[in-house]
Amino acid sequence: MSGKSVVVFWCLKDCPIPESLNPGLVCANIKKSLEKKGYDGLLSVKAYYDKETFSDELFAKKYRDAGIDLIPGGKTARDYKMMWDIVLCGVDNVKGIDFLVILKPVEPEFLLTLSYLEPRGYNVILASPDKEVASEFVLRSVSSVWLSTSLLEQGDLDELSNIRITNFDDFNSPQELEALGTVRLKIELQSRRMKCGGTLQARAARLFLLKSTPLDKLPKKFKC
C-alpha cells in the first residue's frame, strides 16, 4: 500500500463517536489503523450526520477543528449522498487513493456501487459495528471488513475478513487455487466481474489467468 492515502466516508448515525473520545482522537485512531496496513495517511474524512439529531453548533465546531467535513441529511438522503460522493470520487479517477466506508450493513444497491470501484484500481474497506456483516454478499463488493468499534475506540485493526486475493505470486498453479474451494473461487471471480460458473478446476484455471494478465487485458470471454 506504499504511497496510498485513504478517503473516509463515515456515517455518524450508524457509528457514533464513543462517549469517552472526541473527533480529534478518533481521527488519530483511524489514521493509526490505516498506518498498520501500510497507508501513508488520510486524504480526507467526510462524516454524514442527521441534522435533526446533531444541531448543536459546538458539536459541528469540534468536528471541523479535527479536519472532518460534516455533511447533513436525513436517513435516505444521507445514504444516497454518501453513495454518490463515493461514486464521484471514483469517477474523478484520483490516483493513489483507497476508500474506507464506516457504517452498518448497507443496502444491496450501495454494495453494488462499491463493487464497481475495484476494477478501477481502488480498494474499499468496510468498517461496521456488526460482526456478522462479513457475509459472502458483502465480501463480493469490498476488499475487506473491519470492526468499526475497535477502529474508532482504540485504533486497533480487528479485521473480520479479508477474503480477496491481492497477490497471485503466492500461487504457482491453478491446482493450488483449487484448495480454496468452489465457493471461495466463485466469490473471487464474481468480485472481479469474471464468469464464475463451471467446475472447481475451471474456476481455478480462470482465476489463475490473473497471475500473468491484468483484469482489463483479459479476453471478453472470461468476463461477465
UniProtKB/TrEMBL annotation:
Tell me which Pfam families the record gives: NYN, SDE2_2C
Entry's Gene Ontology molecular function annotations:
RNA nuclease activity
Task: Show the CDD domains listed in the entry.
Answer: PIN_limkain_b1_N_like
Q: Where is the SDE2/SF3A3 SAP domain?
A: 162-222
Q: Where is the NYN domain?
A: 6-137
A GO CC annotation recorded here is: peroxisome
Which InterPro entries does this entry report, sorted A to Z?
A: Marf1, NYN, SDE2/SF3A3_SAP
One biological process term in Gene Ontology: regulation of gene expression
Protein name as annotated: NYN domain-containing protein
